[in-house]
Design brief:
five-stranded antiparallel β-sheet, 4% helix, mainly beta
């Protein structure tokens, strides 16, 4: 098989002080190991969900992607280390 992304991950969740906390670890690999060592990098995701009332939830998300140095050598559009923090309100009606 040529190309393609494999995503190996482990996920855990718990309730803490009335919130739901989810943690996910991803290890990104490629199906085709011919181009480089086959590893794109890894990522940690954290999500905190806090109900405000019956209709509104607060969501805070954090993601930290660490690219494998070998994955960026010799490519025109390499992945880069990325860190993202977002917050949003979710309204259910």
């Amino acid at each position: 098989m040529d190309g393609g992304l494999e995503d190996y991950y482990v996920k855990a969740s718990t309730k803490l002080f009335g919130c739901k906390l989810v943690a996910v670890y991803h290890y990104f690999d490629t199906v085709d190991d011919d181009a480089f060592d086959g590893t794109y990098g890894d990522e940690i995701d954290l999500v905190l969900v806090k109900p405000i009332n019956k209709s509104i939830k607060l969501l805070i998300k954090y993601a930290n992607f660490n690219q494998d140095d070998e994955a960026s050598s010799g490519v025109s559009n390499p992945a880069v280390d990325t860190e993202i923090l977002t917050a949003r309100l979710q309204y259910k009606f």
